[in-house]
Amino acid sequence: MLVTAGIALSQTSFFTQTASAEKIVQTDREVNQLDEAGSIDSYSKQNITGNNIKIAILDTGIDKSNRDLTFKKGINFTTNDSADFADKNGHGTKIAGIIGARKNGEGLIGIAPNSDLYIAKVANDSGKVGFEEVVKGLNWAIDQKVDIINISLEFGDGNSELKQAINKAIENNIIVIASSGNIRAEGDTFKAYPGAYPNVISVGMLNLQGQIYADEFKEKKVDVYAPGEDLTSTYFDNKLTLDTGVSYATAYASGFAALVIEGKQKAGESVNHDTVLKTMKVDLNQGIDGAPWYVYIGLILNIATVCALIGLVIYSFIAYHKSIPKKWPTKIILTSLLILAIANAVGRAFVYFMST
């Protein structure tokens, strides 16, 4: 039965083993992150790579010496030394790489390589973490005015202070993305917090085929699914690893959310929890439930337009030869083209408003 990697927590805290390197990746070229649906590449072609999007990562810190990773600020809440946010566990370094590994000609290219990373070490070197540290991390992220908070960890229950901090982040228009929880045994469908809170985007996990990794996720509070099997991650000594787990799917979703936010900002569209989540579901195009019905309107319009234009060309050719020296049926052709243009404009406007 599935036992996914990540930091799991009981109501107070939990000790987890140091995040090991599941499988070292040997490569002499820079590796792109998994892009099953082609959505990341689509954003990249528009030069949407997370520019100026601020992402706070609440985890075990970051490997400061990793050539693929840069950060704007960092802080430690696990000891009295607030400046010691170096990762000695490995989990936080993997999360940071999936989200924002830089495009620098080596190692890994993260999903949002130009995003600004803010590192809050809330879990110690053994992976132990409690509500107090996470709440402090949330409040610090709010003070930094970040756009997204990634929480690749989970509590088995809620907490009033945690909920208050989450609500405060939402009120500041911050997108909070958290794990829907590890599955440790068959039938394990417990609610994981803070992912279970209604205003948090809770992430489930897909396999390499784009299908839900385990049926238990269908019974959990999951808002969006993201790839989580064999994701390339950054690790100690500038190594790359392949890792599987809900933690990594959560990081994938956070990186993708940065692309969505930047895209909406460039288009002058509204950016909030609902619009970002709705677009993530469409753009990730996971295929588990099929795309939303209205997405197919664009495909239908394309097919209908091509068929209609081919029909008009054939009709014009036949009419032209039959009507010599009579007039060409210009009125019929122009009327048909006008109808096609109006149908396309109305249909595409409908799809646009439904998906935003």
From TrEMBL:
Top-level taxon in the UniProt lineage: Bacteria
Pfam families membership: Peptidase_S8
Gene Ontology molecular function, alphabetical: serine-type endopeptidase activity
Record-annotated active site: D59, H91, S247
PROSITE patterns recorded: SUBTILASE, SUBTILASE_ASP, SUBTILASE_HIS
GO BP terms, alphabetized: proteolysis
InterPro entries: Peptidase_S8/S53_dom, Peptidase_S8/S53_dom_sf, Peptidase_S8_Asp-AS, Peptidase_S8_His-AS, Peptidase_S8_subtilisin-like, Peptidase_S8_subtilisin-rel
UniProt domain Peptidase S8/S53: residue ranges: 50-280
Lyase found in the keyword field: no
Swiss-Prot/TrEMBL keywords: Hydrolase, Membrane, Protease, Serine protease, Transmembrane, Transmembrane helix
Keyword Repressor: no
Transmembrane segments: 293-320, 332-354
Family of this protein: Belongs to the peptidase S8 family.
Protein name: Subtilisin
Origin species: Listeria cornellensis FSL F6-0969
